[in-house]
Amino acid sequence: MMNVKQSNMENKEVNEEVNETRKITPEKALEMLRSEGLDVTLEQAGNILDFLRKLANITVTKYLKTRG
Question: What is the model's pTM?
């Protein structure tokens, strides 16, 4: 099990490896997925990343509409 210090160090590494628009690159997504034991290609990692971004946008939009 990972301790808090290790987790904070890994989060810092992830934050440093995002591109200029503050988005995770497909290459970084591939690295993250592989570190969790998922064997995917770079193209698949990019597709997963696109899907997660769309899902996040839908979720935020829906939440903001219900608040408003």
Answer: 0.66
